[in-house]
Amino acid sequence: MAKKKFFSKQMNQQARQKKIAAHKPVSETYAAQLVREKVIEAADVVAWQEDQKKRLYEIYDQTQKSKEEYELHELSPMIPTEMAGLPPATVPKPALERILDRLTTFPQSFRLHPKLTKVVEKRREGSIDWATAELLAFGSLVLEGTPVRLSGQDCGRGTFSQRHAEFHDHETDEIYTPLQHLDPAQASFEVYNSPLSEYGVVGFEFGYSIADPLALVLWEAQYGDFSNGAQIVIDQFISSAESKWAQPSGMVMLLPHGQEGGGPEHSSARLERYLQLCGENNMIVACCTTPAQHFHLLRRQMRAGGDRRGLRKPLIVMTPKSLLRHPKVVSSLDELATGTFQPVLDDPSIADANAIKRILICSGKIYYELVQARDARGATDTAIIRVEQLYPFPESHIRSVLERYREAHQVIWVQEEPRNMGAWAHMRGYITPMLDSRHALGYAGRPESASPAPGLLKRHQREQASLLEEAFAPPTIARRYRKRLVRRRRGSGHA
Question: Are strands 315-319 and 252-256 parallel, antiparallel or unpaired?
């Protein structure tokens, strides 16, 4: 009986397989239905199928032509000691001017939307804002043979209508992407507007960075906060794939960041989470304050050392929102054509270092508000230092800055985020051991909070004004007492 059941089951299985094999594919069934309903002609189906086959073969041939062979040792990650002293992979100014010209030139038949005319004209002027510096970085890389792939949430235009990597003909809706038309021999530039499915998209882009390690692969969140939808991918792969599986990746995450009264889900990018994941030089976390710095940072990712491997470290960038159009956040073509990325920026306004009594250390947008507050108060005894790379921690650069201001008795970390968020815990652990008896590390920022930002604009403004006041406040008697107490404990061997 058991034998009979076995053979009966096998015959049924074979019958099902034959039925499946005889079943027409969905494409054929659907096409036949459309023909029956006179939606399309049978000839249209054949023509469409042939066109699709042609396109796929063209793409396949293109990938085979551009395919590069590489050895495993070429893809090994670079450690911070190798990063130090790397010669800058500069781009000559005439080359940047040619890229800028192509970025602002359109086919004669293309009808640019009238509202975008001013954007294009401003780019032609040569005052380089954030988005233009970024596009110039992409353009320089593709001309050097490095493919660039950018995906994200409205990233073609940019969440804040700042990037405009692609333009739409306002009559035909035809898309024109200037970075795809720089030179016939250039590498590819691709930009894709992805859905609000961070988990799936970030996972795909991480996989893409592994599959094509010689390409610059970037993903941009609509707001940095939205990356929390991909937290599993960030924890399991981006931050730890190299440690767990010896699998390096050079993927870049662009996370708009900054307290500007936009509410809890549009402000933070959760910088503290990325810094908490940092260890064993597993990735790079940066927060630039100038377009030139952003330009050099992106190029360093693929051009460090002048070889083909790049840094082979995930790069997490806290990108700006209001600074995208800030009148002081501009760079010149000369700044892009010379120099290299600087992990720490000293205060360029200080003529006499011995006159400095207070050092404010910060990162990101708050720098410009601190400068404005200093000017308003006439606080000429204050230097404002920017940490542009938070990890790997730029110890030698910060130590050099601290040594310059030997007369300073206050060192304060300033941030917009609540005390239990942002970079405070990370920076305190690194900076405190560097300070001698002349310095005591202070904090100026929002108090601890369960929410990354207030939901009311007026409350945001009050908190912002308060932290700026705290940054410039003279040390109180209580503060001085606490500092003396800490020093005594250190001296007696009690932590």
Answer: parallel
Closest CA to 193 of 234, 230, 222: 222
Give residue 125's pLDDT. 85
For residue 312, what pLDDT is reported? Answer: 87
- Stretches where the chain sits below pLDDT 50 are 72-75, 306, 477-478, 480-495
* Domains 77-337 and 345-491 are alike in CATH topology: yes
CA distance 194 to 451: 28
pTM across the whole model = 0.83
Q: What is the pLDDT of residues 115-168, one digit of tens each?
A: 899 889 989 887 899 999 999 999 999 999 999 999 998 999 999 999 999 999
Where along the chain do its domains lie? 19-66, 77-337, 345-491
Q: What is the pLDDT of residue 166?
A: 94
Q: What confidence score (pLDDT) does residue 455 get?
A: 82
As a whole number of angstroms, the distance between CA 156 and CA 169 comes to 14
CA 448 to chain centre: 27
- Report pLDDT for 3: 56
* Domain range 345-491, CATH architecture: 3-Layer(aba) Sandwich (3.40)
What does the pLDDT look like over 189-216, one tens digit per residue?
999 999 989 999 999 999 999 998 899 9
Please determine, looking at this structure, whether the domain spanning 77-337 carries the CATH number 3.40.50.12470: yes
How distant, in Å, are the alpha carbons of 237, 245, 246, 280 from that of 242?
8, 6, 4, 10
Angle at 398 (CA atoms; ends 394, 400), nearest 5 degrees: 120
Could you tell me the strand order of the sheet in which 382-387 lies? 344-345, 382-387, 358-362, 410-418, 441-446
